[in-house]
Amino acid sequence: MAVEVLWWLFAFLIVGTAIGVVTARTVIHSALFLLASLGGVAAMYVLLLVEFLALVQILIYGGAVAVLVLLALMLTRQAAGGEPVSLNGPQAPFAALAGIALAAVLVGAVVASSWPAAAADGPVDVPFEQISEALFEDFGATFILVSILLLVAAVGAIILARQEDAD
Amino acid sequence: MEFGDPFFGNSYIDAIIRLNIVVLVMTLVVIYLTYGERKVLGRIQQRIGPNRTGPGGLLQGFADALKLLSKEDLRPRNADRWVFELAPFAAFVPIFVILVTLPFAENWGVRNLSLGLFFVFSILGLNIVGILMAGLGSGSKYALLGGVRAAAQMISYEIPLVISLLAVAMLAGTFNLNEIVLLQETRPYIIVQPLAFVIFFTAMLAELHRAPFDIPVAESEVSGGYFIEYSGMRWSLFQLAEYTAMWAFSIFAAVVFLGGWAWPMGTEWGWGWQLFLTIAKSFALIFSMMWIRGTVVRLRIDQLMNFCWKGLIEISFALLLVNGFFLYYGWPEEVLALVQWAATIIFIGFIYTRGVRRSRANEYIGTYRNPEAATP
Amino acid sequence: MVPLENFLALSGILFAIGVYGVLARRSAVLVLMGIELMLNAVALNFVAFAAYLDPGQFAGVVIAVFIITVAAAEVGLALAIIIRYFRMQATSNVDEAAALKW
Amino acid sequence: MSTWPTTREMDIETDGFDTVDMSINVGPQHPATHGVFRMVLTVDGERVVDCEPYIGYLHRGLEKLTENADYRQSMGWWDRTDYLAGMCCEGAYCMAVEKLAGIEVPDRAEYIRVIMMELSRINSHFMFFGAFGADVGSMGTSFIYGWRERERIYDLMEEVAGDRMFPTYFRIGGVTMDLPDNFEQRCRWVLDSVKKGLEDFDGLLTGNEVFIERCRDLSPVTPEQGINWGLTGPMLRATGLKWDIRRAEPYSIYPHLKFEIPVGRQGDVFDRYMVRMAEAYQSVRIIEQCLDEMPKSGLVLNPSLPKTLRVNDAECYLRTEGTKGEYSIYAIAKGGNKPYRMKLRSPAFCSLSALREMVVGTYVADAIIILGSIDIVLGEVDK
Fold it and tell me: Is pLDDT above 50 for D2?
């Protein structure tokens, strides 16, 4: 029972803050809403009994969103309490239409589909030792690939963002 | 009744009771930590410290708390209202959540999480958000500067902090803090992993904004940093967060590196001794932090960043690699300890000689007595 | 017990909100936030499927880990590009980023 | 707060595009400004790209007041210029009037004056060590250590003059009253504790690697720059120039005393600190000599002075070595019992005018300690 209550609580939190992300008037609010939304998703992972993933989510996005906020601060000139301007383009109503349509299609598909009987058993507790085994043994090659991707991205980001002396 | 058993057999009631105990203890500890810090700093500075309220000033913390609670809750006119008002809570809650999994003695903790270590350092990362919120929401440039400094510093120092903890987790083979303590019954991990402890302690000082890394809250530069605009309750929440973090970090370091409640007494000495051991070890760490605060001057932000990115991170990665080799080939732990001690001595010696030689610190002492060599 | 459909519907709505964010926002940083929402919706979807339908295999969980990793890489790279662009064009507005070369 | 300048918040256009600069008001109420002083820093992240000092919050019209009062009445106001070393200011004012009117000072009074002025110098320098340490971030420990010696010196001054900070002890033509009986013994005890205090600062700051890393090579000033910017006192001597008014243009009994002029090499912040350390030590030396050599008894006030001091047309420029630099007075008398003009060249004011040159290009944290290293006293800057 308690799980259902918590689920609905976090579901509303996620959806509400996600709407906040896309409608907030300032970038900083947007980023903070994003953080709350991602935290809600982490809570969902806990409800799905994958605590490890929840902690990874918090660890990565806590830092990532902090950086995002900093950059938002740098890249928008309304840092020190300027007048809030509209951050949405003129295409926003059409985008809203597209979003609503997409949501309708996805939710409709989910509701209309019939799921295997196993779905009725509920989530299974996943010990994180087994996740690590799967991660490093079954998906070892992929893991290395992703690591290289991350490395390349990091190096590329540094090269791109570096301020050249010649500039 | 054992403390490991849930109170009243219901896990929800149990959690509520345990959390309340933790909150009460935490408040008391924080009140006496502020008192203790003022006393210790006072002794370092040849003062007496608070001595008026109650015997020996023991009630000073309560008086301060009362005063803070009754102060007006000011909000600057151009502050971002919700961000400003929620920031203290966002800064405080993660710190409080950490306390949930810390084992103060055998089975003395709110919850014994199997991912305890990971839980602690992932939740710690959220602390930045509250500070950034305070910095950006205050509408003050000092707060902005302090918040940005804090964010840069904390994001950077989180990396060596986490890696030094991972080094211990590798040896222990578990993230469970209780099991980590039990594994240290014969020898604490500081014996095996001294370098990791040195890195952890440095990064801990930086994460806590303690001197000499107190750049985000430097009074003489940004006059308080991110919480400059706060007053009354909200300010005291920041203060609560700061001292709770100090205490939680110290308990955590005592548990992970100093053997927690298990070393040197073992498990059979009963919970009183275990509790005493954990608290004593954590207070020793806190005292050393206060000592450093009273005597060392502040670094500059670029020196701080260089030290992290050009020193600590590389060394912590090397540490991780060495640990990996030892574990993979099954080489004995004694050799690992020897290697680590050698590395620690070299590391500290390198920093010391570099600092002393580059700055030639010893040459300056007393030179004013010889006017010709007054300033080499 | 929460049925699987709830998780799937939630992730669908989250994804749609992300799509709206990507389409409607002008600032590149905000577009990035929309993308983060979409990625998270997908990860939640995978984990829900893994937890309900695929016990003992963890493919969904592992993919969620990969998604988080890739999202981190993507944020880093995208922010670098945005900074670069901001330095050159003094804007982070995606509508104005119309030049193919400069 | 609309009077605060906001126009400086501008985008710095380079050939590319950089981040937005931000101006921060350091002061008027700020722990680092040592009084009511304001500097507006324009910062690019942590870098200072511009700095503009604003003064005048403590302006009291000292020079104008002096023109409207009897020569002896203004003494108390001159105390309050460099309020960390009140006796030095009194001494300068008295000597200026004496030079103007051609008044002799008894020998014993000269020795007493030098002792008190050098004690004031030590006093001021200890304030500098403490406050500078606090600027660099030693959590007030250095501050309290500095205050310990200052308290002892102030106690001694109270015994001598009846007041601690603004004693108004000097008189035109001597000093108010003779020293108390046990003065020599008390003074030697204070000097011993001052020496110990200097050693404490060695342990606390001088040998601290972090402190040296922060201060060494920060805003180095060459002797030419120092002269061009009008630096004097420890600021100028730190650049390596041996320039001390006590030697270059001696006054009082300084020609008879043995002391060295400590100099630095590169004029950076650390040299300024070290020069002051050495100066405090030399002041101890001077006082010890004075205690040894001074006449054990005798007059302390010229007895032939008229009740009302009237000076006919005269004009003089008197330079003294104040604690912050060259504390000089340009005095004109045109008859009557009041001076026609009393112009004070306050050293910290002149050093402060070089702040922008020294600060631009450094970090915010450095700007604070560069300001601290100038050792400003607002009473003297604003007059």
Answer: no
Probe site for chain C from A1, A160, A167 (most C CB atoms < 10 A): A160
Contacts of residue D184, Cβ cutoff 8 Å, sequence gap at least 6:
D291
Cα-based distances in Å from D44 to A164, B135, C86: 17, 17, 16
Residue bearing the bigger pLDDT, D138 or A145: A145
**How far is Cα C84 from Cα B152, in angstroms, rounded to an integer?**
20
* CA separation for the pair B105, B102 (Å, rounded): 9
CA distance D138 to B296: 6
Which subunits have 3 or more CB–CB pairs within 8 Å of chain D? A, B, C
Contacts of B142 in chain D (CB under 8 A): 24
Residue D312's SS3 state is coil
For residue A156, pLDDT over 70 is answered with yes
| Residue D202 confidence (pLDDT) above 70 | yes
Alpha helix locations (H) across D202-325?
209-215, 223-229, 234-237, 245-248, 269-293
Q: Where are the domains of chain D?
A: 62-382
Pick the closest to residue A26 from A91, A90, A89, A79 (CA basis): A79
Contact A99 C19 (CB under 8 A): yes
Q: Indicate the range of B282-291, C86-95, D157-166, D182-191 predicted with least confidence.
A: C86-95
Our CA-based measurement puts residue A95 at a distance from the nearest CA of chain D, in whole angstroms, of 31
Burial D311-338 (b: 16+ CB within 10 A, else e): beebebebbbbbbbbbbbbbbbbeeeeb
Evaluate the CA torsion angle D189, B368, D370, B361 in order and state its sign: negative
* Cβ pair B142:D24 closer than 8 A: yes
CATH class belonging to D62-382: mainly alpha
Q: CB neighbours (10 Å) of residue D27?
A: 20
Closest residue on chain C to A55 (Cα): C65
Per-residue pLDDT, A72: 66
What pLDDT digit, counting tens, does each position of B227-269 carry?
A: 888 888 888 888 888 888 888 889 889 888 888 787 777 777 7
CB D216 within 8 A of CB D312: no
For chain A, say whether D15 makes contact (Cβ under 8 Å). Answer: yes
- Measured between CA atoms, the residue of chain A closest to residue D11 is A77
A67 to chain B, any CB pair closer than 8 A? The answer is yes
Residues of D in contact with A79 (CB under 8 A): 20
CA nearest to B12 within chain A: A2
A68 — contact with chain B (CB < 8 Å)? Answer: no
CATH number belonging to domain C4-91: 1.10.287.3510
List the single residue in A2, A67, A81 with the smallest CB-CB distance to B139: A81
Q: List all residues 6 or more positions away from B21 whose beta carbon is below 8 Å from its beta carbon.
A: none
Chains touching C (3+ CB pairs < 8 Å): A, D
- Region of residue D305 (left: phi > 0; alpha: psi -120 to 50; beta: else): beta
**What ipTM does the predicted assembly reach?**
0.81
CA A121 to CA D233: how far, in whole Å?
85
The whole-angstrom separation of Cα C100 and Cα D149 is 71
User: D49: helix, coil or strand?
Assistant: strand
- The three-state secondary structure class of D24 is strand
Q: Do chains C and B touch (3 or more CB pairs under 8 A)?
A: no
D148 in reach of chain B (CB within 8 A): yes
- Closest-CA distance of chain D to residue B227, Å: 15
Interchain CB contact of D12 with A (< 8 Å): no
**Which of A29, A67, A81 has the CB atom closest to B78's CB atom?**
A81
How would you label B306-335 residue by residue, b for 16+ Cβ within 10 Å and e otherwise? ebbeebbbebbeebeebbeebeeeeeeeee
Chains sharing 3 or more CB pairs under 8 A with chain B: A, D
| C101 φ/ψ sector (left φ>0, alpha ψ -120 to 50, else beta) | beta
Number of CB atoms found within 10 A of residue D183's CB? 16
